[in-house]
Amino acid sequence: MQHHHAYILFANSLEESLLPIAYKVPSMDVFHVNTQRLSIDEVRSLTTLSLQRPFEGDTRVFIIVTKDIAIEAQNALLKLFEEPPLHARFFLVLPSTAFLLPTLRSRVAVFENDSDSDSDSEGVVVSDADKNDVFASFLSMNHAERMLAISDHTKEKDPVWIEAILRGCERWAHMHAQTHTSMLTGILMVRQYIDSKGASAKMLLEELALLLPYKE
After folding, report:
1. 63-100 burial by CB neighbour count: b if 16+ within 10 A, else e?
2. Distance CA 21, CA 36 (A)
3. For residue range 53-98, what is the model confidence (pLDDT) as tens digits?
4. Of the candidates 131, 130, 204, 203, which has an alpha carbon nearest to the alpha carbon of residue 173?
5. Which residues have a Cβ under 8 Å from the Cβ of 94 and sit 6 or more positions away?
6. 106, 74 contact by CB (below 8 A)
7. Which one, 12, 130, 143, 216, has the greatest CB density within 10 A?
8. Hey, what domains does the chain have and what are their CATH numbers?
9. Could you give the 3-state DSSP secondary structure of residue 61?
10. Which residues lie closer than 8 Å to 88 by C-beta, 6 or more apart?
11. What 3-state DSSP class applies to 110?
């Protein structure tokens, strides 16, 4: 199953982004680069830092806030994202992806801001841009049905279904960041730990399912 180590969030600044509060403050394992145009030298420094083991916990987080990325810097990021250190997570806070190389764009997961979306009678929004039938079906389930679906698919070790649920949750988290602030933190936590040795995909997905609204 392919899990992402790099993400894009659309915003003009770190403060406007939907990143969890803990990621907006630099620390021993949270690094910020805030620049108008990301350079090759800055990417090289990030690469060196990303190879170092975390001081606390299991993850090093790199936040890049920029309005443009030099072509040579994009190629360096592409190489880094193709074979990222397992303990590293990268977040690009950008106003747009128009300047990104297609090859780099394909290596990151995007928390998309979908304005064209449909709402059901319960107020649950399903994104037209997502067109994720697996997630749409999951979203329409009640609590018991979700738990059963998670149990069945994790028992079968179904990576396609699991990835569809995770991607659907990512888009849902972005669209509902103002009213469901814990959802984005939840999906990032699941992405962080689901590949860890001894991690239970079933338990992680169950925690995520509880953050989504469901019909009684």
Report:
1. bbbbebbbeebbbbbbebbeebbebbbbbbbbeeeebb
2. 22
3. 998 878 899 999 999 999 999 999 999 999 899 889 999 999 888 8
4. 130
5. 8, 9, 10, 11, 66, 67, 100
6. no
7. 130
8. 6-111 (3.40.50.300), 117-211 (no CATH)
9. strand
10. 5, 50, 59, 60, 61, 62
11. strand
Tokens of residue 22, six digits: 């803990």
Are 91 and 63 in contact by the 8 Å Cβ rule? The answer is yes
In the chain, DSSP finds a helix count (H) and a strand count (E) of 8, 7
Q: How far apart are CA 71 and CA 106, in angstroms?
A: 16
Q: What are the pLDDT digits (tens) for 16-46?
A: 887 878 889 999 999 999 999 999 999 999 9
CA distance 154 to 162: 8
Using only the alpha carbons of the chain, give its radius of gyration: 17
For residue 3, how many other CB atoms are within 10 A of its CB? 14
What is the spatial distance between Cα 78 and Cα 15, in angstroms, rounded to a whole number? 26
User: Which tokens is 91 given?
Assistant: 């977040």
